Structure formats: C-alpha cells, structure tokens
Amino acid sequence: MSETGAPDAARWLAAAAPDAGTCLAEWGRNPLGVTLLPAGRLWDVLIMPGELGGRTYEVLRLYMRPVGPVLGDLSASRIGFFVPPGTAAGWMATGVRGAGRGSWVLVPYPGRAAGGVRWICPPDGSGTLIDPVALELAMHEAAAGHEPAPEQGG
C-alpha cells in the first residue's frame, strides 16, 4: 500500500468504530499500531487456518482485482477475509470462523506490521470488500488442492 493510501484506508476502517476519532488517535498512541474494531457494522471477517487461507488468497489474487482487505495473524497462523456485514452469520464451512456483529477484531494501521498481525492485502479506503461467493469458490479450489491456471499475458 502506498503511504498516500494509508490515511484513506485508516479513515474507512475507523468508521466502523463507535468513535472514529478515538480509533484514529489510538492507532497513533499504541506503540504496536493496533486497535480493536467491531465487526458487523461495515464488514465481517471470515477467518481460515493459515495454510487454507493462504491458498485461498492466492486463488482470489489470480482472478479478482482488487481482492479486498485480507488480514494475517502470523503468530496464530490465521488469515481473515473482510466480507460484507451479515456474511459471518450465514457462513457454514468446516474450519472457518466468522467474526460478525458482537465480535471485535485486532486491526493494525493500514500499511504497518504490528507484531504477528499484518495486512496481506490492505484496504484501499474505497470500501471494497471480498465477494462471499468468490471467496467460497476460491476456498473450495484451494481446499481441493488444484493449482490455479496461470494468468494469460495479453
């Protein structure tokens, strides 16, 4: 993420907080550059085990531009995909945990690594989220162990 896009992405993420100004200030005060944000207002997060999540992200990256926000917790080997609000409540897939209304997510400032939590694909500030249908298809492709077809040059 370019340094110029980080403030827009931070404002978009902070809009999910009960008080966006406090959230932005917390990012500045916290030496780790993280804050807790509530899921379920602007986005939900679907959390996959690291290996499946990583392969799913690679499949999405081949077929979608832009992918949408993806957060990695490297210390716990988990990958979180930001999807539209309400998605987590209806998601049923073995090994996938949903963070929706009533859940809080540890979020680093866009473009910054914070310990083991970092953006694999940071938000761009526009509100782009990952399409749940595309995510499900990519997850099935990744779980099946198929190698994605290489991109065609053109």
Structure characterization notes:
The protein has 154 residues and is an alpha+beta fold. It is 32% helix and 22% strand. The chain has helices at 6-14, 20-29, 50-63, 87-90, 132-144, and strands at 34-38, 44-49, 70-73, 78-83, 97-99, 104-108, 117-121. A five-stranded antiparallel β-sheet has the order 5-2-4-3-7. Strand 3 (70-73) and strand 4 form a beta hairpin. Helix 1 crosses helix 2 (20-29) and helix 3 crosses helix 5 (132-144).
The helix/strand series, from N terminus to C terminus, equals HHEEHEEHEEEH
Poorly predicted sequence stretches spanning 5 or more consecutive residues: none
The separation of the N and C termini measures 25 Å
What overall geometry do the principal axes of the alpha carbons give?
Answer: globular
Percentage of residues in DSSP E strands:
15-25%
pLDDT averaged over residues: 87
| Integer-rounded radius of gyration | 15 Å
Q: Kindly report the spatial arrangement of strands forming the biggest sheet.
A: 5-2-4-3-7
Query: Helicity range of the residues?
Result: 25-40%
Number of discrete helical segments:
5
Main sheet makeup: 5 strands, antiparallel
Number of strands: 7
User: SS-based structural class?
Assistant: alpha+beta
